[in-house]
Each structure stands twice: as C-alpha cells, then as structure tokens.
DUF659 domain-containing protein
Amino acid sequence: MVHLVTDSAPNYKAAGRLLSEKFPTIAWSPCAAHCINLILVGKLPMVLDLVKRISKVTIFVYNHKWPLSFLRKIPGWREHPSGRNSFCYQFHCSTKSLPA
C-alpha cells in the first residue's frame, strides 16, 4: 500500500498521522468527497438550499412509480445507489444540469 484515503474525522487523521510516522512510505489524505461535502453543506447557504431541494426531488421520484418508470426509459439515465458519497454525486448532477 502506498496511499491511504480515509474520512477526515479526527480519529482517522490521528491514525493516518501515526501510520505515516511509523511507515514513511505510506501517505495519507482525507477523502476529497467528504471534505467537499463538509465545506459546501456547512458554509454556503445557497448550496444547502440546493441539497435540500435535490433531496425532496429524490424522495418524490422514489416514492412515486410513474416518475421513476419515466426516468428509467430515458436513454443514458441510470440510478446510482445511495451511499456515503451520494451528496457529492447529487451535487455534481444538479450543477451539471443547471443552465450556464
């Protein structure tokens, strides 16, 4: 192993620092997606509003059969499983679809 990527919580930072000190050939860095999530959600009100709206749309689509069925028929459209990095994916998709 050459590079270790973890959450940016204090306990992971401490573990990464200890590993890097004990094994100088191993580098450590926090997960970029997690860092972006913390920065955007905590600091920019307009992004927080966007995330809330995206969540409402996602909940609506998954709770109603017809929009989900409609979206599944669109060529190139695909579902991404919800997970730890779902915020970053949702943010990326929403900003990609905004007019320039």
Summary: DSSP finds five helices and two strands in the chain. Residues 45-100 form one domain. The first strand starts at residue 3 and ends at 6.
